[in-house]
Automatic annotation (TrEMBL):
CDD domains: AKR_AKR2E1-5 (cd19116). PROSITE patterns: ALDOKETO_REDUCTASE_1, ALDOKETO_REDUCTASE_2, ALDOKETO_REDUCTASE_3. It comes from the Eukaryota. This is NADP-dependent oxidoreductase domain-containing protein. One of its GO terms (molecular function) is oxidoreductase activity. The record marks K80 as: Lowers pKa of active site Tyr. It comes from Hermetia illucens (Black soldier fly). The lineage of its organism: Eukaryota, Metazoa, Ecdysozoa, Arthropoda, Hexapoda. The active site is at Y51 (proton donor). Pfam families: Aldo_ket_red.
Amino acid sequence: MAKVPKVKLNNGLEMPAFGLGTFMSKPNEVAEAVKYAIDRGYRHFDTAFAYENESEVGRAIREKISEGVVKREDIFVTTKLWCIHHEPSRVEAACRKSLENLGLDYVDLYLIHFPVGFVYIDEKTLIPCKEGTSSILTNDVDYLDTWKAMESLVKAGLVRSIGLSNFNAAQTERVLKNCEIKPVTNQVQCSIEQNQKKLIEFSRKRDIIITAYSPLGRPNPSERKPSFFYENPTKAIAEKHKKTPAQIALRYVLQLGTVPIPKSVTKARIDENIEIFDFELSSDEMKLLDALHTGERVGAILKMIDNDHPYYPFKAEF
Ligand SMILES: NC(=O)c1ccc[n+]([C@@H]2O[C@H](COP(=O)([O-])OP(=O)(O)OC[C@H]3O[C@@H](n4cnc5c(N)ncnc54)[C@H](OP(=O)(O)O)[C@@H]3O)[C@@H](O)[C@H]2O)c1
């Protein structure tokens, strides 16, 4: 069973340097995946209110705790505040709802999922759109006000650490200049095709860890086929190390200094993805993979948000 090292966060707590993603893991399959992953050495789980699977993720973790396989303190659980809950008055209730879904007293990490707030209609309308269009209704809640409400959650003991997701460097700096509690991480897309080198360097200097989402480029032969995953030089490097392209892609972002959280509900892939701590890519191999950066972003939702919104994060270079 693979042994995953831990990284130290800027608040003195630790986070396993690798985790299991659960976006688009269906409720009927995610509990099995989480339980299997715990048996295989995974200790870090990433979910979100918006993934609508917190209950199953939490149930799987609690089952493994009651079986005596792990203790609560061995497991690192991340969930996220969704964009309809950015108004400060909604933040605590949203966090308590996530805790209730998970069946846990606290989460290890709570993130602002995205810097842009959406109009609140009701708890079920996660993506409020203008009638007859696929254009999201946003609001102008300042993420600094949301951040203050996130800080209160730490003080209330509901969450151990707080962080950001999909924030650019200027937005991160603005939080840092105005916060009482620093974000421990910024969870962003990071893979061979979107290597985030500038944001990683910026964040490293400020003691903020980058958590790498979509580290495999979300490969799925019927929907998305990132060439870096299926072609050379990744394939050739994989053959040389007797590893798979997925393991090369994950080792690459690990060596960039990030914490990868690949998603899988497939047992063989859950096994495969964690086996990245027993080999190293050379600096020449890292350079070959660096050259595959295209800057492409995954995620259909990005196309639905008005990119003129003042807090839209991806117009900036990084
Ligand atoms: N903060 C955010 O805004 C944000 C956005 C996106 C994602 N995330 C988080 O990051 C996690 C990972 O990102 P992601 O799910 O977008 O993409 P990803 O992990 O790069 O890719 C997941 C896809 O790759 C497949 N896969 C997994 N291991 C594989 C392997 N060894 N070989 C071939 N295919 C493999 C999975 O299929 P199977 O499951 O069928 O095996 C799934 O279709 C998410 O699940 C979520 O927790 C956060």
